[in-house]
Amino acid sequence: MADRHAALFRSLTVRSLELPNRIVMSAMTRSASPGGVPGSDVAGYYRRRAAGGTGLIVTEGVAIDHPAAVDNPRVPRMYGEDALAGWRTVVEEVHAAGGRIVPQLWHVGPLWGAMSAVDPAIRPMRPSGRWGTPGATSYSDEYIARAAHPTAPMTEADIDDIRAAYVRAAVAAAELGFDGIALHGGHGYLLDSFLWQDTNSRDDRWGGDAVARSRFPAEVVAAIRSAVGDELPIFFRFSQHKQQDYRARLAGTPDELQAILGPLADAGVDVFDASIRRFDVPAFEGSELSLAGWAKKLTGAFAMAVGSVGLGKSLRDSRAEGAAAVVDNIGKVARRLECDEFDLIAIGRMHLADPALATTLRTGAPLTPFDRAVHEGRLH
């Protein structure tokens, strides 16, 4: 193993989760589960990454049991006997290959209707009825025009129902043998829409300053912690950018970020998954510290970085600006892990190209050359 990669292969323990290395397969939506049921192909897909040595797999987003949770019928769900049976097979296959796996529980919130046609009778779940201010986005003008119309804000009953749905999904995952729970709290989806001031202008206990806006996501975390007990770790993905506007910022200063993340850590988050387009971009002026680094510094929790590992530019940028190149920036990742800026590195596209990515990195073999069909997941 190349010395510059050694930091990637230190072990890490988070509650009951014992990881042999710091390499994580990042959550990536694949729309490969017809009817929301993960089949044998999905189990094989995750098993191959486990067998390849990846320390932890975070699944693609998984719908919780709520009518407006996910608008794509090929996205897997964490409810229903058929889907749960499919996930049981996934967990068994991953464990048989020596891997560890956590599901990323998902509610799209304001972005209901972005992935496919939806039942117009189902109301999107939006804290204040707002989709968000459109900015730099990949969504079509036609979708934005539809989505921009305000809806009725979420009611107390809506909030109670969704909190309960998250808990049911987490309990089901724990019973299936998953090794932890992950929550998608970024990108403008439901939990993030409470955190983001642009979509949360409520004047009740669920809105107000940054601490108040974190109350609902923190209550979801606390309810899950109470339901699943103290052994399983809880991961929480957050982001500055939003699908509504890639230039948006959740927090403008470290103090603002602490006000948002602190209550989540207190509620039971063990690992903050800091979603950015490049893992090493400074989060705030005056410091070279990344978003993951700030999450760890401000909360004392573990942190996970993600973004363009092994790639010269993000896939989204490459579609607009020209082909991406595979770039060996693993040494930069390892140096930040070595100095404990963050604790885990999540890698997405390179895991699609090379199921045995962890072994490749351990042996120092060259990274898989760029192929858009492979790195964008059109091949499995």
Report on this model:
With 380 residues, the protein is α/β, with parallel strands linked by helices. Helix content is 36%, strand content 12%. An 8-stranded parallel barrel has the order 3-4-5-6-7-8-9-10, surrounded by 4 helices. It has a two-stranded antiparallel ribbon with strand order 1-2. The longest helix has 21 residues, at 156-176. It is globular. The protein starts with 11 loop residues before the first strand and ends in a 5-residue tail after the last helix. The model has no long low-confidence stretch (mean pLDDT 94).
Strand content: 5-15%
The quaternary structure here is single chain
Q: How far apart are the first and last residues' alpha carbons, in Å?
A: 27 Å
Specify the biggest β-sheet. Answer: 8 strands, parallel, barrel
Enumerate the strands of the largest sheet in spatial order, edge to edge or round the barrel. 3-4-5-6-7-8-9-10
Number of helices: 14
Provide mean pLDDT, rounded: 94
Number of strands: 10
Give the overall form.
Answer: globular
Organism: Nocardia testacea
InterPro entries: Aldolase_TIM (IPR013785), OxRdtase_FMN_N (IPR001155), Oye-like (IPR045247)
Protein name: 12-oxophytodienoate reductase
Pfam families: Oxidored_FMN
In short:
The chain has 380 residues and is α/β, with parallel strands linked by helices. Helices cover 36% and strands 12% of the residues.
Helices, strands, pairings?
Layout: E1 12-14, E2 17-19, E3 23-25, H1 40-51, E4 56-63, H2 81-96, E5 101-106, H3 141-147, H4 156-176, E6 181-184, H5 190-195, H6 210-213, H7 215-228, E7 234-239, H8 254-267, E8 271-275, H9 291-299, E9 302-306, H10 315-321, H11 330-338, E10 344-347, H12 349-353, H13 357-363, H14 372-375
Parallel strand pairs: 3-4, 3-10, 4-5, 5-6, 6-7, 7-8, 8-9, 9-10
Antiparallel strand pairs: 1-2
Helix pairs in contact: 1-2, 4-7, 7-8, 8-9
